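Glyceraldehyde-3-phosphate dehydrogenase structure dump, as promised
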Amino acid sequence: MTDQHTQAQAEWFDRVAAAETIIPLVSKLYRENNIVTSIHGRRLINRSAIEVIKAHRAARRHHGEEVEIELTTRILEELSKMDVATASVDLGALAHLYKEQGEGDLAAFLAEQLKEVKPADETGQGADVVLYGFGRIGRLLARILIEQAATGPGLRLRAIVVRKNGEDDIEKRASLLRRDSIHGPFNGTIVVDKENNTILANGTLIQVIYSSDPTTVDYTEYGINDAIVVDNTGRWRDEEGLSQHLKAKGVKRVLLTAPGKGDIRNVVFGINSKDITDEDVILSAASCTTNGITPVLRALDAKFGVEHGHVETVHSFTNDQNLIDNFHKGARRGRAATLNMVLTETGAAKAVSKALPEFAGKLTGNAIRVPTPDVSMAVLNLELSKEVTRDEVNDYLREVSLRSNLRQQIDYVESPDIVSTDFVGHERCGIVDGLATIANGNKLVLYVWYDNEYGYSKQVVRVIEQLGGVHPSVVPHRKDVLEI
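structure tokens r here:
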């Protein structure tokens, strides 16, 4: 082995050793202070040393240089000395800002950045969550809630409610939570107690309640009070149907994981979530596509103005389609989902205006279901209020993904070989593919990827956090898109 190879290997192992020192600091802050740490949006909790290194290196595509592990280690050590709790702290953004300001006293810098984060004894009690239905979205919500469970105030997954399908129902439910063909195995341990109808997942005890009538469930029997019921069934989408949950003992609010009908408010987190009031007891988290495109449209409209446009969604097939040709109440959806591209309707374009009223009448839309199980794409064909260049649009959206208050919703990528499977498990609900952007005068075509299962589920959890009053403070402060 040459000296050069030996040196490269030694440098690599030094980096691994440095990354390993970060892992217990990240874990301790999360476990004891409910502080979620990330690097430019890439969470560090429960990550290996290699994943920690990759998160630090990923900053190169944003700032031209990677985040130094030594600096993030120092930041973590200082954070562990501070009396703060329940916060989302971006170590990459803090490191960049610290160096931008000329470095100096790190403790004083962090104290200023975290001055609005509450001490541990002022962060509230948390909120009970019930998942009504346990299908694709329900199980992903369970995974996220279990992963995010902390000893401090936060969301507590207390129960799932399903209709019983045989004597081995609970074992099958647990098995579907444990293994997923798309998102992989559950990260942890799962123990089933058939006698007491409970599932113990990584220390989270989940009561399995069997019922087909929401009004008859008494959640207080299980010590559940003021719960947020998340309806994943799609069975009821209007106020009359969803209000049945409020008749059950122990329920405070209801959130639908599908577009709501009638006067139900459709919420896209980061867009109109701040408009939620205490009087809003029944809400909808809109659809995966609405969540995927609305933040990007908001950013574009703020900077360039959107006159009108068309949204074409290339969407993975879903469980409401047939595997092989058979009767279906919807047009074309009866044809084999795994063999055909299926042209169908989507209400996502019109639904944007429920979160952004200024888009009323501006958008049309259609959808093509394609033979892939997850990850979809929205093609935005827009006419803007001003002429733009491709680089101008891309540079702006890159900055929005890094520094704006829509950073949790929008990501930006430039990769010549990237394809849909690369976005499975992506936490942001819309990822702009910069290399595909087309600009011609005031005409713009933008391609936005989104994991229609996981990315959407993350948005739902953010809404639940706000309803429960446990959404973490964000550090450092993020700019409004109008300031980018």
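The first strand starts at residue 35 and ends at 39.
lmk if u need the other ones
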